[in-house]
Amino acid sequence: MHNSNSVDLEGLEALYGPLAESIRRLIDVSIRTEVGADVVAAATARIETVADDLSASLTPGSLGIRQATDGRVVAWGNAVIGLRNPVAPPLSVHHETDGSVWAEFTLGAAYEGPENHVHGGVCALILDHVLGATAHLPGRPAVTGTLTIRYRRGTGLGRPLRARAHVERVEGVKTFAEGWIEDDDGVTVEANGIFIHPRRADPGRIDGEI
Amino acid sequence: MHNSNSVDLEGLEALYGPLAESIRRLIDVSIRTEVGADVVAAATARIETVADDLSASLTPGSLGIRQATDGRVVAWGNAVIGLRNPVAPPLSVHHETDGSVWAEFTLGAAYEGPENHVHGGVCALILDHVLGATAHLPGRPAVTGTLTIRYRRGTGLGRPLRARAHVERVEGVKTFAEGWIEDDDGVTVEANGIFIHPRRADPGRIDGEI
C-alpha cells in the first residue's frame, strides 16, 4: 500500500471518474460501430494521440492500493470496482450491517460470451469479488482459497443484474461464503468460496475489495 | 448466429484490430497517467468526440457470433478472445491435436486486484474460457456446468503467463476438464470444470470459444 502516496479523493474522483466513464463508452461503441473504414481509421489515430498525451507522465506498473488523506483506502485500478479502470463495470459493493454485501449493475457488449449473454467467466470474476468482500475485515484482508461456480442458466447482457453474498460460517482462519447473480427471473449463477485470513498479510494473495 | 451477416474477415481484421489495440493502450495509460488535470479533462473531451463519431451507426445490443464468407465463425466481441473487444487481453487460444489447448499472455494494470497482482476473478475468467475451449466440438458447443478454482499463490501483473487445459474424461454428455495458469515459477491457479453438451443447442448457455 502506498501510504506515502496520499491523495485528495474528491478532487481526483471528479477528474478521473469522467475519464474512465468516457473510455467505457468508447469501448462499447468501438465494439458495436458500423461506421465506414475511414471513420474507424481516423478514430484509431485520434485515440493514439490522446494516449500519447496521457503517457507524458505514468505511474510504473499498475495503480495499486492507495490511502487517501482522510485515511480511506481506495483501489481505483481494481478490475471489478476500480473508479479509474475502464475495464471494470465498475461495481459498487454495498455492505449491510449483518455482513452481507450486494451490488446492482448492468453489463453491456464488452462482457459478452455466448451471443447476447454475459461471458460465464465474467460471472465468475464478479462472484469472486463479491464473495471476497464478505470475508474482508478492517485491517485483516482475506485471500481466496477455493471458488466454486455453478451455472444454472444464461445471464443476459443489458438486463438489470444483482450480485449478493454473505458469510455462511467461519472455521478458524477460514471464512465460508456463498453468493449469487440474479436477474428479474431469479438466480442465474451461484457460488461458494473459501477465504483465508493469513496470519501475516501477503499482499500478493489478497483478493477482492480492500 | 448471424448467418446472414457474413463478413470479409481479413479486411475487417485489419480495420478493427488496430482500433481495439489503440483502446487497450488508452485503457492502460488512463489508469496510470499522472499528467495534469487540464490534460486529463482535454483527453476526456476528445474521447467523447471519438465515441460520438463511432456512434453514428451502431449494431444494437452486442456483437454476437458471426459467420465469415469462408465459413469460419468469429467471436470478435468476446470478453476473453474478442479481436474487437478492448476489455479482452485478447487471448489467442491454440488447439493441439491431442485436444489440449493453451494460450500465452501478459496482463497489465487493467487486470489488477491485489497490488501488482492479477485479480483472482480475472484468473477465473481466463480459466473458464480455456477449460471451455477443450470441451467444444465443431457444431457441438458445450456449456459450463460447474467451475472450481483453487488459488495456490498470487499471479503477477506484467509477467509472461501461460494458461493450459485438457479434457480429463468424458461421461455421457459431460466433459470433465482441468487446467492451470502458470508463470515461470510454476502453477499459480488451478481449475476443474464440468461442461455439458446439450441435446439441443441453447445459445444462451454456450460459454467460451466457438
Please describe what this structure looks like:
The structure is a homodimer of 210-residue chains. With 210 residues, chain A is of the alpha+beta class. The first copy, chain A, is built from 3 helices and 9 strands. Strand 6 of chain A pairs antiparallel with strand 6 of chain B.
- Structure classification of chain A: alpha+beta
Which chain pair shows the most residues in contact?
A-B, 95 and 95 residues
Order of helices and strands of chain A: EHHEEEEHEEEE
Instruction: Say how many strands of chain A there are.
Output: 9
Runs of chain A in which pLDDT lies below 50 for 5 or more consecutive residues are 201-210
- Quaternary structure annotation: homodimer
Helix content of chain A: 25-40%
Beta-strand residue fraction of chain A: 25-35%
Mean pLDDT of chain A comes to 90
Major sheet: arrangement of strands of chain A: 4-5-7-8-9-6
Compute the CA-based radius of gyration of chain A.
19 Å
Biggest beta sheet attributes of chain A: 6 strands, antiparallel
Spatial separation of the terminal alpha carbons of chain A = 11 Å
**Secondary structure tally, helices of chain A:** 3
Q: Give the overall shape of chain A.
A: globular
Give a nutshell description of this structure.
2 copies of one chain form a homodimer. With 210 residues, chain A is of the alpha+beta class.
Which helices and strands, and how do they pair?
Two copies of one chain form a homodimer.
Chain A: E1 2-7, H1 9-32, H2 37-54, E2 66-68, E3 73-74, E4 94-95, E5 101-105, H3 120-135, E6 143-151, E7 161-171, E8 174-183, E9 186-196
Parallel strand pairs in A: 1-2
Antiparallel strand pairs in A: 2-3, 4-5, 5-7, 6-9, 7-8, 8-9
